[in-house]
Amino acid sequence: MAVSTPHRFALLIPKTLAALPAIQRLPWPGPFKYLPRLVQLKAAEKACNRLLQEQLEYGDLDFLEGVTLRLQIKDMGFDWAITKIANQLSFSKGCDGAETTFAGNSKDLLLMASRREDPDTLFFQRRLSIEGDTELGLEVKNLIDSVDMDEMPTFINHALYLSADFVEALPA
Question: What CATH class is the domain 5-169?
Answer without folding.
Answer: alpha beta
